[in-house]
Amino acid sequence: MAPAPLTIDWNQIDTILLDMDGTLLDRHFDDHFWLEHVPMRWAQKHGGSIEEAKERLYRMFRSQENTLNWTDLDYWSAQLGLEIPVLKEEVRHLIAVHPFVIEFLLFLRQHGKAVHLVTNAHGKTLDLKLRRTSIGPYFDGIISAHDLGLPKEDPAFWGKLQERISYRAERTMLGEDSETNLETARLFGITYLIHVGRFSSTATPAVSERFTNIRYFSELLPRDGSLTVCLGQG
């Protein structure tokens, strides 16, 4: 069943929380890095085929899903015997901002919204991506889950976040490519939940059956001079 239509009145929203990877940035970089580049480098260092490396590493990766270790570069450097931050630099040319993201961030700034980047990404990943994309100045705050000690998959994350930034859940929007993270935010009471389905430029867009879907942030921009947008009405 498709989610019910959602009317967004920007006058009723004060705070926007935005995920980074797959939401603002093309997840092609991350998918290629972890699924192709790291296994290749691991096989080169430790021996064996790339296929064998993928089988072993994918199993290790899955074991840490929904934990902070999932995105902890220091953890994976130690586990794999590789300098993960250095390897990320090797494919940094794949880091890219999704279409219409800058236009959306400019709209939010023009209308005086509080905008925060809220990500599970490790600090070293954040540094690389902010250097590469120059999107940092568009945000009032940048918070990594590693700073709070909880991943966004943990329902307690959103209350912990309120200790760092002041926001009213009923007047807050969250943009995410993860249904799990949207669900924990819904449990906390965040009202405006937007699922970004076009997480990667090289993958088929995902469609959520639980949350309002968009492919591009341009879909959230008013077109008629008002500050109201209606989504999910076919």
Automatic annotation (TrEMBL):
Family annotation (Gene3D superfamilies): HAD superfamily/HAD-like
Gene Ontology CC: cytosol
Domain of life: Bacteria
GO molecular function: phosphoglycolate phosphatase activity
GO BP: DNA repair
Pfam families linked: Hydrolase
Protein name listed in UniProt: Haloacid dehalogenase
Organism in which the protein naturally occurs: Geomonas silvestris
